[in-house]
Amino acid sequence: MEFNQLIPELTVKNIEKTKNFYLDVLKFKLEYERREEKFLFLSFEGTQFMFEELHEDGWNVAEMTYPFGRGVNFSIEVDDIEKLYQHIVCSQYPLFRPMMINKYEMNGQSLEQKEFLVQDPDGYLLRFTHE
């Protein structure tokens, strides 16, 4: 397995709840885990995330209260956004924002993409996109 140059590591309250959400609802792939350390390494279509359950010796710079990751959203480009969206809707997991088409200005050009947003169990905001 090759590692991306940037891999976010997110602190979570309950590693099993996180694992179930990312694997079952979002269809991420479990690359590896260290059960005794309550650590996961997951991937999805070229993206990679690490997750670690909150503990006293973690790299926490402030008190961790819900929602975690305030002010951050992770943009994840997907191949088949419709399929993923329908899977999440069918799972009855709540959407933060439903599917929409947005236009973004970029160096004098307009980029149009489909996107929707979901909050994971700890409140991290995930924005799934497709051009």
Describe this structure in words.
The chain has one domain: 2,3-Dihydroxybiphenyl 1,2-Dioxygenase, domain 1 (Roll), CATH 3.10.180.10. The chain has two helices and eight strands, in the order E-H-E-E-E-E-H-E-E-E. It has helices spanning about 15-25, 80-90, and strands spanning about 10, 30-35, 40-45, 45-55, 75, 95-105, 110-120, 125-130. Strands 1-4-3-2 form a four-stranded mixed β-sheet, covered by helices on one side. A four-stranded mixed β-sheet has the order 5-8-7-6, with no helix packed on it. A hairpin with a 5-residue loop joins strand 7 (about 110-120) and strand 8 (about 125-130). It is globular.
Overview features:
131 residues, 2 helices, four-stranded mixed beta sheet, alpha/beta, 2,3-Dihydroxybiphenyl 1,2-Dioxygenase, domain 1
Question: Could you write a compact summary of the structure shown?
Answer:
With 131 residues, this protein is an alpha/beta fold. It has helices spanning 15-25, 81-90; strands at residues 9-12, 29-34, 39-44, 47-53, 73-77, 97-106, 109-119, 125-130. It has one domain: Roll (2,3-Dihydroxybiphenyl 1,2-Dioxygenase, domain 1), CATH 3.10.180.
Strand content: 35-45%
CATH class reads: Alpha Beta
- Count the strands? 8
> Termini, distance in Å?
27 Å
Low-confidence stretches: none
Shape: globular
Main β-sheet, in a few words? 4 strands, mixed
CATH superfamily: 2,3-Dihydroxybiphenyl 1,2-Dioxygenase, domain 1
**Order of SSEs:** EHEEEEHEEE
Count of individual helical segments: 2
CATH A-level architecture: Roll
Strand order in space, largest sheet = 1-4-3-2
Q: Which structural class do you get from the secondary structure elements?
A: alpha/beta
